[in-house]
Each structure stands twice: as structure tokens, then as C-alpha cells.
Design goal:
This protein is an alpha/beta fold and 509 residues long. The protein has two domains: 147 residues, Rossmann fold; 300 residues, 2-Layer Sandwich (Dihydrodipicolinate Reductase, domain 2). Helix content is 33%, strand content 21%. It is built from 13 helices and 18 strands. It has a ten-stranded mixed beta sheet with strand order 14-17-16-15-13-7-12-11-8-18, with helices on both faces. It is globular, with a radius of gyration of 24 Å. The structure holds 6-O-phosphono-beta-D-glucopyranose. 6-O-phosphono-beta-D-glucopyranose (BG6) binds next to loops. 6-O-phosphono-beta-D-glucopyranose binds next to loops.
């Protein structure tokens, strides 16, 4: 690993939820794992009128509740939070940024930071274009003495146009290689393992194409609802919240060609080629291959769960989608004719994210399946979470007379790696930015291409009053129409259980 230089992390939106739950606990975990440099400081910036002490007290609670590590003692947390500072400003006033500059100057001298600063924007998106400008106004974006990097939280735009504008605005004040557009799915260990599974094993890659793969399924389903984020969600919906970013990023790792080298430039290049090959959605695709739904009130495990329209901050006649499924194609040599199905939704029966590679059935069916069902073909399941692991479903002879076939599991679970620490996504991503490695961050062009692909869906929903929105009871697997999207003689969604290798009758949700 590259050496981590002395530096400061400046968090805008420091009194917010993300800082409390994810950012500070992740940097603390880096501290305990000896990944922080000798000279380090964190400067929180926000509107809330905190002193350094108030900020430290609040962040200590966040660490206790959300650190990924077990058995931490209070003394370790106290040592860490002594490096936390806070400055209160009105982020919309350019003059206030001189306070940030002055505080950084002081910390720079005190901790020998070599003028290296990362600015993390964890604020409402409308500030993404303002903060860079005012930082620039104070000369804080220029890399004369140390490095200056900026991390932009999601959402990166809410349409193609806004993403293009945001890229343009950022590039007025930062160079592309200073900009780190975060997508926390890319920081997940299991998502990174996708490339390793594909490109470090000789057995998968020869099969990883249209000749052997029937279809690909990518799901990120959640049992929670909008959890008090109704106001945000109303203007987002699951398509903007999960599909355009997280799941298309995952799809690009499933579909990309092997990069020439395992570095940021080559990997990003291969991902871009996938985005450029996405088949644009036709009018027919929009009507038949894109399904949206919204959860309605229902009983889940004996409890009454309210419908989306009854959530706080949600309009009574809301048409925001909480479920989304679609079928699409990647028009290149490898994937020609192979459908990709992706889906995501809130208030589904369980929380699971996984990729299922469905291989074509064997060309001649010599043996009968034990239950008389049509042969399904092997499935390779790459489980992102929970019960992270890999599962291969393969046919086995049922012992005894005859040749009946039964599907069995060959599985690996990360939990079996007893002595391996699996970093939290934010921990990995923040460390990468500290080192200056943007492999796991989105490129500006990548963000625009994924928006370009999804924009016709937004236009269709906005302009066509007949574009359907299906209700589905909270706790169910979404609207029936989504099943019709995929179903045929030997195709159906996989209905995953919490545990990777549980199937059929024995399924904990
Ligand atoms: C976030 C979305 O980006 O990802 C949330 O805004 C969603 O709505 C979350 O719940 C899911 O992330 P994870 O890591 O729990 O799968």
C-alpha cells in the first residue's frame, strides 16, 4: 500500500447524520487499524453552533454506536477525538470561508499537515456547486504546496442535465483527478471481489459471455421503508437512489472486459466502455421492460406497516417509486442478446444485495430433475450482503437407483475467514482518497453516461400520464408485473433468503 501523507479531512455537513453514522466511525476504524498518518486532523464544518468539545462528544457517541470494530476502550476513542475540531459557518456566505482557512492554517502548523487537505461534501446537494467556488475563493483548491482533493457524496445530480452541470461547475475549480465522486457500493469488499473472482480464476472467464450465460440478475432489496427520509425520497425514488448509481456501477463490474492493468485508469476505461455499450431504451422498452411500484399498507410479521403515502414528508398522491425493476441489454461482443435484470425496492421481505449469473442449461437433458421441474442451469451467486460469499448451484445425482438430479450448493462464506478484518465501505473509500487512488470512485464521464441511459425513464414518467405505477403490499416481493418481466419456462427472479445458501422450505428472511 502507498504511504499515507500527513493531512486533514475537512467535512462539510459535519453535524449531519452521515458524518455521525459513517464518516467519523470509519476514520476512527482507520485510526485503530493504524492507517492514519502521524500528522492528522479532522475539521468539521457546519451551520450548527458546536464548539470543538460539543463536536467531540457527539462524535464519540457515533463511534460507540457505529464503529465496525469490537472491544474498543474509551481511552482509544478519547485519543482519536482529540484530533477533531469544528468551525461553524454559513456555507452560503463566501466570507465565512476565511474562518475555515484560518482554522486549517492553525491545524496545519500544529499537526504538520504539509498543506494536504481533503474536503468531504456531505451536505444537501444544492451546496455542491457553492462550496467548491468559495473554497477556490480562499485559494484552498490550488495544489501549490500540498494536495487538495474533494469528495462528493451522492446524489451526483438528479438528471442528466444536472449531472452535466455539476461536472462543469466542479471542473471550474478542481481538476478531474482531484474530484472523488463517491458510490459506497464500490467500497464494499464483496463488490471489489467481483473483479478478483472474474479475473484471477481461469475457470469463470471462458464462460462469462453470451455463449454460456442465459441472463444476469442484480438485486438490492431492503426490508426497511424510507425511515424518516420521506422528504428526500419523494424527490428521488429508488431509481435515482439505488439504480442509476449503485446497481449500474455493479453491473459495469459484472460486464467489463479484463483491464490491461489493475489500476484506476484502465479499470475506469473498461467500465466506461460498458456504459457506452448500453442499448438505449426504446419507447417499447420503457413501456414493457421498466416496472415501477410503490408499497401500500400491509401486515408484516404480524405488525401493521404503513404505506409509502402515509410516511412523513410524502404527498398523499405521491407517484414516487419505491420499487424498480428493469430489463436491459449491453450491445457488445461479449453480451449481445443476454438480458440483464436489475431490481431494487424498499419494504420487500428481506435485505439482500446479490448478483446471480444464470448459465444456460446443458444442451441435452439426459437426466430428470428430482421434482420433475425443467432444468434451470447452473447459477453462480455473488452475495454482496448479508452473509457475504459465493454460491454455485450445481446438479448432483440423487444417490440410489436411476439418474435423478438434484440441485446442490457449493458455497463459500466470508465469515469462514476468521482472522480477516473486512473494512466498512466508507473506511476503504476514505483511505483510498487519502492515498490518492480513485479506482473505486466514479469518473465524471461515467456519472453522465449512466444518467444518459436512465434519463428516458424519467422523461417517460414525467410526460406520460399513463405510465403505470403499481402498488405492492409492504413485505411482499413487489408488483406481480415485475415477475412477468423475467418469467418464462426456466426463468424467474431468485427470491433470496438472509443466509446465502438457504433455499426453498428453509428460509430465514
Ligand atoms: C443509500 C440509499 O445510498 O444506500 C439508501 O440512499 C439505501 O436508501 C442504502 O438504504 C443502501 O445501502 P446498503 O449499504 O445498506 O446496501
Amino acid at each position: 500500500m502507498k504511504k499515507v501523507d500527513n493531512q486533514a479531512l475537512v467535512i462539510f455537513g459535519a453535524s449531519g447524520d452521515l458524518t455521525y453514522r459513517k464518516l467519523i466511525p470509519s476514520v476512527f476504524d482507520l485510526y485503530i487499524n493504524d492507517s492514519l498518518p502521524e500528522g492528522y486532523a479532522i475539521l468539521g464544518v457546519g451551520r450548527t453552533n458546536f464548539s470543538d468539545k460539543d463536536f467531540r462528544i457527539k462524535m464519540k457517541q457515533g463511534i460507540v454506536e457505529f464503529s465496525n470494530l469490537k472491544g474498543i476502550d474509551s481511552k482509544q476513542i478519547d485519543d482519536f477525538i482529540s484530533k477533531l475540531f469544528y468551525v461553524s459557518i454559513d456555507t452560503k456566505k463566501s466570507d465565512d470561508y476565511s474562518l475555515v482557512k484560518a482554522r486549517l492554517k492553525e491545524l496545519n502548523t500544529k499537526f504538520n499537515l504539509n498543506n494536504n487537505y481533503i474536503f468531504y461534501l456531505s451536505t444537501p446537494p444544492e451546496l455542491y456547486s457553492i462550496i467548491p467556488k468559495y473554497l477556490y475563493g480562499q485559494g484552498l483548491t490550488l495544489q501549490h504546496k500540498g494536495f487538495r482533493r474533494i469528495i462528493i457524496e451522492k446524489p451526483f445530480g438528479n438528471s442528466l442535465k444536472s449531472a452535466q452541470e455539476l461536472n462543469k461547475q466542479l471542473l471550474d475549480f478542481f481538476e478531474e483527478d482531484q474530484i472523488y465522486r463517491i458510490d459506497h457500493y464500490l467500497g464494499k469488499e464483496t463488490v471489489q471481489n467481483l473483479m478478483v473472482t472474474r479475473f484471477s480464476n481461469g475457470i469463470f472467464e471462458p464462460l462469462w459471455n453470451r455463449n454460456y450465460i442465459q441472463h444476469v440478475e442484480i438485486s438490492a432489496v431492503e426490508s426497511i421503508g424510507v425511515e424518516g427520509r420521506g422528504g428526500y425520497y419523494e424527490n428521488a425514488g429508488v431509481m435515482r437512489d439505488m439504480i442509476q448509481n449503485h446497481l449500474l456501477q455493479v453491473a459495469s463490474l459484472v460486464a467489463m472486459e479484463p483491464p490491461a492493468k489493475a489500476n484506476a485508469e484502465e479499470i475506469r476505461h473498461e467500465k466506461l466502455k460498458v456504459f457506452r455499450s448500453l442499448r438505449p431504451l426504446s419507447k417499447d422498452d420503457l413501456r414493457s421492460n421498466v416496472i415501477r411500484g410503490q408499497y401500500t399498507e400491509s401486515h408484516v410479521k404480524g405488525e401493521l406497516v404503513k404505506g409509502y403515502r402515509d410516511e412523513d414528508g410524502v404527498a398523499k398522491d405521491s407517484r414516487t417509486e419505491t420499487y424498480f425493476a428493469m430489463k436491459f441489454f449491453i450491445d457488445n461482443w461479449r453480451w449481445s442478446g443476454v438480458p440483464f435484470y436489475i431490481r431494487s425496492g424498499k419494504r420487500l421481505p428481506t435485505r439482500v444485495s446479490e448478483i446471480v449469473i444464470h448459465f444456460k442449461p446443458s444442451p441435452a437433458q439426459l437426466f430428470k430433475s428430482i421434482d420433475g421441474a425443467v432444468e434451470q442451469g447452473n447459477q453462480l451467486i455473488l452475495r454482496i450482503q448479508p452473509d457475504e460469499g459465493i454460491l454455485l448451484k450445481t446438479g448432483l445425482k440423487v444417490p440410489g437407483n436411476g439418474y435423478e438430479v438434484k440441485s446442490v450448493n457449493v458455497d463459500f462464506h466470508y465469515s469462514d475467514l476468521k482472522d480477516h478484518y473486512i473494512p466498512e465501505a466508507y473506511e476503504r473509500l476514505i483511505l483510498d482518497c487519502m492515498i490518492g487512488d480513485n479506482t473505486l470512485y466514479m469518473s465524471g464521464e461515467g456519472a453522465e453516461l449512466t444518467w444518459e441511459f436512465m434519463q428516458p425513464i424519467l422523461d417517460y414518467w414525467e410526460n406520460d400520464p399513463d405510465a403505470p405505477l403499481y402498488g405492492y403490499p409492504a413485505g411482499s416481493w413487489g408488483p406481480d408485473n415485475a415477475d412477468e418481466l423475467i418469467e418464462s419456462a426456466n426463468k424467474t427472479w431468485r427470491y433470496p433468503c438472509k443466509n446465502l445458501s438457504d433455499d426453498g422450505l428453509y428460509c430465514e428472511l
